[in-house]
Amino acid sequence: MKTALPLMQHTTMKNTLNGSSGNQPFQQPNRLGYRSMRRPVHHPIHHPVHRAHKGLTLIELMIAMVISIFLLAGVIQMFAASKQTYRLQDGLARLQENARFSLDLIGGEMRLAGYMGCYASGSANMVNTLNVTDYEMQLDIALSSFESDGTNYTGSVGSVWTEVPEVIRNAIATIPADQPSSDVLTIRRVADQGLRLASTMPNVSADLKAVDDTNDPPEDCDILLISDCTRSAIFQTTNITVPGGGGNINIVHNTGICAPGNATKPLIEGSGEPFSTDASIYKMATTTFFIAPSDIDNAEGDTVLSLWRKEFNNAPQELVAGVESMQFLYGIDSGTDGIPNYYARAGAQDLSTAVSIRIDLVLNTIDRATLNGDGLVRRTFGQTIQIRNQLNN
């Protein structure tokens, strides 16, 4: 008869048979009467993995630096080329704009040279009552010009260099010796459309009564011209009265008082008739163009030559910078057909027979625009202008 083993003893034997230690925890029997043993779960221990640190060797670093330097040099070169191109294009654009403005300005004055209203420039029936007939007051001469040989200036017929206003001669004298010399041109004409005489002068010395139909009436000491198309007189006002309410302007022209002043009061020589309502009164204008140093230097600190203008007794005005040379050729009409037979420089020429003027200007970019020489780009611009008021002289 078999004897059942105690439960604890049986459990120990099974554990021993399974090769397990008797210290294993007690397991409940399953439905088949066997007791199962669960294997303990062993959690793995994670050890840190030491990865290899990667980097650049010295040779690789040097190669990368060399490549970077080449790329940077290329970028810098492209930037420098773009900047140089911009400077060149900007300089050329400004140069062309200055050339157009200069030619338009001088050309406009040339076309009006000798304009005396309906009176023909150069006619003999002109009275000049002024005390002096210096350079700017030679209002019966439409054109005066001077050419230079680099040292001396030779004037056209009736023009003397020492009579040119001192302020112009002094400005020209400051042109650096290494710069080209330029011509000088003076244009004389009337400056407005004129005022009509409201009544006949009682006598040749009487005050003038003019219709007040202008927004720019004459002022005291203005130089005026009166003309009825067949005769004319140049005089200086000494007192102007402009009444309100549409009255007539009273113009007094006594001797003395203003500078240069009137030497005589009569506006008609001999026994001529006084001016009547078919006459008009005009303001006179004298304009001189010349080349002289600018008031400012360029970006490199070098002297810049400019186109200047002087009007009557006013101070000279700088018009366009970068004009370094101005030359004139005069189309001389040997006959009476108004067509030039030849072109000549101003020296010793009678410009009353000139029917056209050829102007040549040399302009530069003012500041450096290239890497060659002084860095300035130069262009020559020319134009031929007809002198309308001398075609039938």
Verbal overview:
- This protein has three helices and 17 strands.
- By secondary structure, it is an alpha+beta fold.
- The strands form three sheets. Strands 1, 2, 3, 4, 5, 7, 8, 11, 12 and 13 form a ten-stranded mixed sheet that branches. A four-stranded antiparallel sheet has the order 15-14-16-17, with helices on one face.
- The N and C termini lie far apart (171 Å).
What's the gist of this structure?
It contains three helices and 17 strands. With 393 residues, it is of the alpha+beta class.
Q: How many H/I helices?
A: 3
Strand content: 25-35%
Question: How many distinct domains?
Answer: 1
Spell the H/E element sequence. Answer: HHEEEHEEEEEEEEEEEEEE
The helix fraction, in percent, is 10-25%
Structural class: alpha+beta
| Overall pLDDT score | 84
Question: What's the number of extended β-strand segments?
Answer: 17
Which radius of gyration do the C-alpha atoms yield? Answer: 50 Å
Low-pLDDT parts are 1-24
Largest sheet: 10 strands, mixed
**Ends: how far apart?**
171 Å
Specify the overall morphology: elongated
Please tag this protein with its features.
single chain; about 400 residues; alpha+beta; 10-stranded mixed sheet; 4-stranded antiparallel sheet; 3 helices; 17 strands; elongated; disordered N terminus
Secondary structure layout:
Blueprint: H1 7-17, H2 58-111, E1 126-128, E2 143-148, E3 153-155, H3 166-173, E4 184-190, E5 195-196, E6 208-211, E7 223-227, E8 232-236, E9 239-241, E10 248-252, E11 280-293, E12 305-311, E13 317-321, E14 323-332, E15 342-344, E16 354-364, E17 378-386
Parallel strand pairs: 1-8
Antiparallel strand pairs: 2-3, 2-4, 4-11, 5-11, 6-10, 7-8, 7-11, 9-10, 11-12, 12-13, 14-15, 14-16, 16-17
